């Protein structure tokens, strides 16, 4: 009876949290769309703001969802997909294009072509790399993560080396490209992104029910009849695709996933991924949207929201490391 009441209370708490976050997001969305609109520019302002709003919602949900998947299959709440070196590889792709072709080349100036190049390259290298590693080291998740850290460092070092070599004016163009920005969203890019996301989620939808069991660890999941290795490989590919899309869409936001997913797990206090994913996605969208509203409409400064998020996320990451070291 006591357990039943506890479950009912948890479900009510989950529903209240969902409702509250939905209300907050709705209010922030309305403020973002209609705040400071000048008379006579109503239609033009909305045509500029609606695509940016869609991009923010899309990016927030993608980063949160991919981080939850990644932490479940690695069974570690301190790790995020960025540890795999995908952010650094995105920076390397952009740097190589500017270094080889220049900042005025169509590969940089045409956002649609640049987007597709980034998507194809990031998905290709992550899929080939981690599929190969999984075949040879099926049980060694730590080795795969370690290789990701080393590759991230290698990609970062190569990028910095080439950035020193290029022309200063082209370096400034590259720096603007590397900071996450919601100011230059292309509707064609959003359409392609949505199509790729829908196809990816349909491809793996039936396997999401196994996430609760996989969070128990490899041995327990296998004993309960779950094809752990196959699903882990499949979810690695899904994480790579989703992070590739979000990074190619707005640039690297390193600590957003770590920040919102750990905060979500503190709020939810449940093993159910249906609860964690729902609240995590809403919380991530709210953080991005509120941050962009605050900087763009209220404070009216051009600082990218990623700078603020990375500052807070970096401090939170240090706190988590110190707390884990005390526990050990």
How would you describe this protein?
- There is one protein chain.
- This protein has 328 residues and is an all-alpha fold.
- 80% of the residues lie in helices and 0% in strands.
- It is built from 14 helices and no strands.
- The protein has helices spanning 2-34, 42-74, 86-101, 106-109, 111-136, 141-165, 168-178, 187-204, 211-214, 218-223, 228-250, 256-268, 273-298, 305-327.
- Helix 1 runs parallel beside helix 13, helix 3 (86-101) packs across helix 5 (111-136) and helix 12 packs across helix 13.
- The chain is globular, with a radius of gyration of 21 Å.
- The model has no long low-confidence stretch (mean pLDDT 80).
SSE topology sketch:
Layout: H1 2-34, H2 42-74, H3 86-101, H4 106-109, H5 111-136, H6 141-165, H7 168-178, H8 187-204, H9 211-214, H10 218-223, H11 228-250, H12 256-268, H13 273-298, H14 305-327
Relevant terms:
single chain; 328 residues; mainly alpha; 80% helix; 0% strand
Q: Assembly type of the shown chains?
A: single chain
* Overall average residue pLDDT: 80
| Span of the ends, CA to CA | 36 Å
Anisotropy-based shape: globular
Work out the number of β strands: 0
Structural class: mainly alpha
What does the largest sheet look like?
A: none
Percentage beta strand: under 5%
Topology as H/E string? HHHHHHHHHHHHHH
Low-pLDDT runs? none
The percent range for helix content is over 70%
By DSSP (H or I, 4+ residues per run), the number of helices equals 14
Radius of gyration: 21 Å
